[in-house]
Amino acid sequence: MRWGDMRESENVEDRTGAGGGGFPLGGGIKLGGGAMILVIIASLIFGVNPLEILGLLGGGGPVPQQSEPAPGYGPQTASPPATPEKTHSKKILASTEDVWGAVFQAMGKRYDPPKLVLFRGGVNSACGTASTAVGPFYCAGDRTLYLDTAFFDELQNRFKAPGDFAQAYVIAHEVGHHVQTLLGTMSQFEAQSQRTDERGRNALSVRLELQADCYAGVWGFFAQKSNLLDPGDMEEGLRAAAAVGDDQIQKRSRGYVAPESFTHGSAQQRTRWFKSGFDSGDLRNCNTFETRSL
């Protein structure tokens, strides 16, 4: 990406200097690496998302709001040093602010941008507590994106999806959940989820996540029109979308695929919807809740 001259968003809070090894739970209890491994093994045996065991819905997507913030929630006083990953994240968020501000204005609406919190190890949010294992997530409770910058290393090394546009896709996807909140889709999703069983909730979650992928593609469309993309950036985004498909993750972790347990969509679905938004730049092409075939 040609992000060297892009502005940096001011809606970023850097908590990477606040520490946070392990997974902080209520009352100050933390799960260390060994306990986290047990949680992951249990999730594979029983075929459930490990975040459900930890009291969260899932990484890479919205986390349900709690009635009150967890202890320690709020701005941190530390001033950690800048890194290329942090600078890039701030610039990508700024680009999403510009794009969605213009899109909402064209719809006669006002775009209220989300905040981005950068952390390392663990973080407190209005939706509860999370560790690096959760991955990037969006909390509708405080309208904030949470990102452990170590995930970019995971994206490159574990998921084999390197590149700055792959990282941008991750942020743009979470911003897509914020767009869903502003448009009322998130509240509709939560209401419908309460009226169905686990399989039904999973199916709704897949549609929610694929729409966020499509919204990430819409941002990419306008970023391309603004001459911010380099040759090959589109392919980086598609590789990242495919790498975090439920089928690919399950193959790596379980050795087999269980479509009924999908919560984010397959690699094919995620690339399809990202490309749909990228090719058109039109939100009307992102209505995953109305189409029969995903």
3D architecture notes:
The chain is of the alpha/beta class. It is built from ten helices and nine strands. It has one domain. It has a five-stranded mixed β-sheet, covered by helices on one side. Strands 2-3 form a two-stranded antiparallel sheet. Helix 7 packs parallel to helix 10. It is globular.
Q: State the major sheet.
A: 5 strands, mixed
Order of helices and strands: EEEHHEHEEEEEHHHHHHH
- The number of domains is 1
Q: In which order are the strands of the major sheet placed?
A: 1-5-9-8-4
Strand content: 5-15%
- Give me the oligomer status: single chain
Structural class: alpha/beta
C-alpha Rg (nearest Å):
18 Å
**Beta strand count:** 9
Q: Unreliable runs, pLDDT <50, ≥5 residues?
A: 20-59, 65-77
Q: Share of helix among residues? A: 40-55%
Distance from N terminus to C terminus (CA atoms, Å) equals 29 Å
Short description:
The protein has 294 residues and is α/β, with parallel strands linked by helices. It has helices at 33-46, 50-53, 84-106, 151-157, 164-183, 185-193, 198-225, 233-243, 246-253, 267-280, and strands at 12-14, 23-24, 30-31, 62-63, 115-119, 122-125, 128-131, 137-139, 144-148. The strands form three sheets. Strands 1-5-9-8-4 form a five-stranded mixed beta sheet, covered by helices on one side. Strands 2-3 form a two-stranded antiparallel sheet.
